[in-house]
Amino acid sequence: MFTAINEIVGIFEQHGIVKGRDKLLPNLTLRQRRAFMNSEYASKEGNLEMSPLSATVKIPTEYLLNYLSQYENANYQIGELLRSREETIIYKVNASFRGDPYPGALSAIDYLMCREGKSFEERRYNLIMAWGNLTVDEENKTLLLESDKSTIHDFVKAVKASENKNILGKDYEEIPNFEIPRYFMQVRYGSTFSKVKHIRVYSYFADDILFPNGALWRDA
Fold first, then answer.
1. 90-101: per-residue pLDDT in tens?
2. φ, ψ for residue 122 (rounded to 5)?
3. Contact between residue 63 and residue 136 where contact means Cβ atoms under 8 Å apart
4. Which of 28, 65, 73, 205 gives 20 to 30 Å between its CA and that of 89?
5. Do the bridges between strand 126-131 and strand 133-137 make them parallel or antiparallel, or are there none, so unpaired?
6. CA 182, 122, 130, 150: dihedral to nearest 10 degrees?
7. pLDDT digits (tens, 9 = 90+) for 146-201
């Protein structure tokens, strides 16, 4: 894998992105790597259910906003970022809160299903991560989420383990609704190199993270 990565970096450095991309297709090292990956997929009886895409669902963003309306009040309304995309992709994880394999799966879903540009801002669909057993309530145009495996406190505990200043040191119940986007922003960008990998990845890629007893979302 690292040999293939070195080939990619070397070709881009020598020829630039556009010409380098054309030279990657016939590159012998990459062809051998593709053949190896295809062989591994076949020998392990690979199928589409092995893909993280099998754990996703696409919903109208209206359903998500209806669900998040429980966090709105007279002083705070959900911002325009989530509202700007008509549809939303939800990655459903009914498991105990942890890292691998979920960070890699979330980033893969972004590139495969949501992103149209170079940054996570350039998405066709919102990318949401839901920890628990998710049900799409078509009748009421909202979401139902329950779990006995993961809670918002698992996320906050992981953040507090590496952060002890400012708003990141607060428990979820201490955070006013209008400060939740600020909390989420600090999780994404503050002290980047001190946070554990899965917290960094979840916070970077997800527009919204849902737990049965709490949520984190971006306003901008």
1. 999 999 999 999
2. -95, 75
3. yes
4. 73
5. unpaired
6. -50
7. 999 999 999 999 888 776 556 777 889 988 898 888 788 777 776 665 577 898 89
